[in-house]
Amino acid sequence: MAGAGSDTYRRIYAVVRRIPRGHVATYGQVAELAGYPGQARLAGYALHALRDERAVPWHRVVDARGRLSLLRSGSGAGVTQRLRLEQEGVRFSAGGRVELVVFGWRPRGRPASSGARARPRKRPRE
DNA sequence: TCGCTGACCCAGG
DNA sequence: CCCTGGGCCAGCG
Question: Binning pLDDT at 50, 70 and 90, where does residue A5 land?
Fold first, then answer.
């Protein structure tokens, strides 16, 4: 597991700390706001490297479809994540997803649901 | 110094 | 719904 000493990770943590209570942000969104557009994975790495979980509201970060990555990965922390979100007023649909249109964090008033495709992550094949 | 590996994401089949 | 491939970064053995 990667450590958390780099400036790159610190930038990501700074963004996560800005997510308001009762809202969620996607990994890709966090990465973009931190200055790393198209690098959602980086946000995931940074959060996984988090040791001091009280320093950052990591539970407010979900995947692009509003699902909890920790649940899919089989990590028990996913249950905690969902509980914490529900305590903040975030509701889950039947499929265990958060409706990003409703709970997605919109820093400037832009829809968070469709903003996942700001940049092609895949370069065109020749 | 190399080579894993990990809380992502999207296009395709 | 499942699987594959490619792209990104940092830490550890």
Answer: low
Report helix, strand and coil shares of chain A as percent, to nearest 5: 40, 5, 50
Spatial distance from the CA of A119 to the C1' of C2 (Å): 26
CA distance linking residue A85 with residue A76, whole number of Å? 15
- Segment A20-33, tens digit of pLDDT: 999 999 999 999 99
Residue A119 pLDDT greater than 80, yes or no: no
pTM above 0.70, yes or no: yes
Nucleotide nearest to A56 (CA to C1'): B7
Smallest CA–C1' separation from A38, nucleotide? C8
Tokens read off for A108: 């400037």
A21 touches strand C (CB under 7 A): no
Give the integer Cα–Cα distance in Å for A104 and A99. Answer: 7
The structure tokens listed for A79 are: 């249950």
